[in-house]
Design a protein that fits this description.
Radius of gyration: 16 Å
Distance between the termini: 50 Å
Number of strands: 7
Strand content: 25-35%
Strand order of the largest sheet: 2-4-5-7-6
Number of helices: 5
Length: 176
Amino acid sequence: MMAMEVTRIEQTLADLFNFVDATPMKKERSLLYPLIIKGLILFYSVMEKQGIKHKTYIPEKLIYDFDPQQMRLVFIHLIRNAIEAMENGGELTIEAVAKSEHIHIYVRDTGIGIASSDLQLVLNPFYSTKDSGIGTGLATVKRIVSDHNGDLSLRNRKNDGIEVEITLPHKELSNK
């Protein structure tokens, strides 16, 4: 029990430090695919234990100018949220699509969803619908996406779960 509480406290502190982090952005031209796959690998054992299947639809050569450390945090938070919403199994889908001058990244889960009245509130710092955590995960995601001149939106899916859409501007797409 003490070990679980220490882990929870460490995660809370890490989330708080990530939220207030003022490290300048260091953009570099990088592939998006390995970044997302590495995020999935971090949670592979938990997904397997909970019976969560995952699918990815990401062009392997999709290149974008971003800060890899900050975008890594985005995917870690989104994947963790999806897993927490699917305690009894489900499916996590991550898709990236290059359209004209934007990259759209979709993270979809078949979890419990979020009440419509809470959809926009969960993006606010320190607002949470969960029993654990401090409510900085999605606020951190929103800040990082905004720092990359992008947009973040959340939608309930028709049958179950949530769809998170990240839209990032990009002038030179490489999708070969």
